[in-house]
Write a structure and sequence with these properties.
462 residues; alpha/beta; Aspartate Aminotransferase, domain 1; Aspartate Aminotransferase, domain 2; three-stranded mixed β-sheet; 38% helix; binds pyridoxal-5'-phosphate
Length: 462
């Protein structure tokens, strides 16, 4: 290895030693409640596919049809090669869905932030940024050259203090916050942030990546959640999460949108979203417009999961959204937890520094939209040392086969001498049993999975 690159090897080894090295698992199945991960069937606890749209037949069909009609690539950047009618349609429909006047798409949410922030403020200006904002906001802010003042997480009073002390020293000020925070699942107090921002005549920008398709009426997002339509200047979005595709969007004030078409650098210097992506996003949007069913199911599953995790003694932090962190502390413990869950057929990635602060490593759970509605049989029969056993059965199974389901669950519980709860994760009429738990081990509170249980039990009811 050339000497000039030797440092990389050392740094990689440091990451490994600190338990911070990312090992990426390979999927060979579509997104859904169950995945094939590194060749093994596993429950999906970690995608952003909140509504199950990534593999929805109508979304897939829309992408296929568009590819047949238009091909796949956009040709070049839109200002050079012209814009496809599909992109224009998507922008109009996204703006209407979010209840704002205009929208412009980017290739990703990350690019939307990199494009929007430097177009709005420059090196003479100031940015007030929540201390836990997403990396793309941080990078977009740095790229702008503006002075960055971080305020305490979700604290409008600290923001107000910062604005009061500093605002008048700069021609333009931008206040920027995540809507739903991607690592903790808490939601910015946008109504209060709006008030403070107004008072100091600053531009307000919110990144609604985890609010679209999740918060507000039928998933219309954080502005709808707080009834702030027309009051937030810039709303960043992504189609890579609830929409199940990929792509970014900046929505809001039409002047901002027009300006980004002239000065948003990823818009001007990088090709547009691909044709299948754009058509797929339109289909996802249509599904959201038609019914609130998918969003309702997401919240039903989320509430159930959170309640159960709390009941079982886990610390799920300050989350009020489907992003549910399971706080574990040190990165090596989180990685071990994740590895052992995987051995038991649950795919739940550990998240550590630098994605979250040191000492706040966690498993971050998002239930894929392909999960069936929750319903449970709960057999409480706690044993010393064992905090819980979780297994699950679907409403569908319950409704159709309540009696048989109950009998089976009792038998299984008796067999195992543990409490059990059942779901049918993939709504295929088979009970899916997941066994995982925490226990007090010699190393303190940690993971104890129950080797005497089968990894997954399937029961078919006649
Ligand atoms: C708050 C926030 N903004 C932006 C992004 C980037 O979105 P995309 O995947 O579309 O680049 C993410 C993704 O993790 C995010 O959580």
């Amino acid at each position: 290895m050339p000497d000039r690159l030797h440092w990389i090897q050392e740094e990689l080894q440091n990451l490994k030693d600190a338990g911070l090295y990312n090992r990426i698992r390979t999927l060979s199945s579509p997104q859904g409640a169950w995945l094939v991960v590194d060749g093994k069937r596993a429950l999906n606890f970690c995608s952003n596919n909140y509504l199950g749209l990534a593999n929805h037949p109508r979304v897939v069909e829309a992408a296929r049809e568009a590819a047949e009609k238009y091909g796949v690539g956009p040709g070049a950047v839109r200002t050079i090669a012209g814009t496809m009618d599909l992109h224009v349609q998507l922008e109009k429909r996204l703006a209407a869905f979010k209840g704002v006047e205009a929208a412009i798409t980017f290739q990703s949410g990350f690019n939307a932030n990199l494009g929007a922030i430097p177009a709005l403020v420059g090196k003479e200006d100031v940015i007030f940024s929540d201390e836990l904002n997403h990396a793309s906001i941080i990078d977009g802010s740095r790229l702008s050259g503006a002075k960055i003042i971080r305020y305490t997480h979700c604290d409008p009073a600290d923001l107000a203090r910062g604005l009061k002390e500093n605002r008048n020293n700069y021609p333009r000020a931008l206040v920027v916050t995540d809507g739903a925070f991607s690592m903790d699942g808490d939601v910015a107090p946008l109504d209060k942030i709006h008030e403070v921002t107004q008072h100091h005549s600053a531009i307000l920008m919110v990144d609604d990546a985890h609010g679209e398709g999740v918060l507000g009426r039928g998933g219309r997002g954080i502005l709808d959640h707080f009834k702030l339509h027309g009051k937030v200047d810039v709303e960043i979005g992504t189609m890579s999460k609830a929409f199940g595709v990929v792509g970014g969007v900046v929505a809001g004030n039409p002047l901002v949108v027009e300006w980004l078409g002239q000065r948003g650098r990823p818009f001007l210097f990088s090709s547009a979203m691909t044709v299948p992506d754009t058509a797929a996003c339109l289909a996802s949007l249509e599904l959201l417009e038609e019914s609130t069913g998918l969003v309702d199911k997401l919240w039903e599953n989320t509430r159930y999961f959170k309640e159960e995790m709390k009941r079982l003694g886990f610390d799920t932090g300050a989350s009020v959204t489907p992003i549910t962190p399971v706080m574990l502390g040190e990165a090596p413990l989180a990685q071990q937890f994740s590895r052992e869950l995987f051995e038991k057929g649950v795919f739940a990635m550990a998240i550590g520094f630098p994605t979250v602060p040191r000492g706040k490593a966690r498993i971050r759970v998002r239930l894929d939209g392909g999960f069936a509605s929750p319903a449970l049989f709960d057999f409480l029969d706690d044993e010393p040392n064992v905090e819980y056993v979780v297994a699950m059965a679907s409403n569908a199974v319950l409704n159709r086969h309540a009696e048989e389901g109950m009998q089976y669950a009792r038998a299984l519980s008796g067999l195992a001498g543990r409490s059990a709860t059942f779901f049918d994760f993939d709504n295929d009429g088979w009970l899916d049993l997941v066994v995982a738990g925490t226990a007090t081990t010699s190393r303190g509170r940690g993971i104890a999975l129950f080797p005497q249980f089968p990894q997954r039990v399937e029961v078919e009811f006649a």
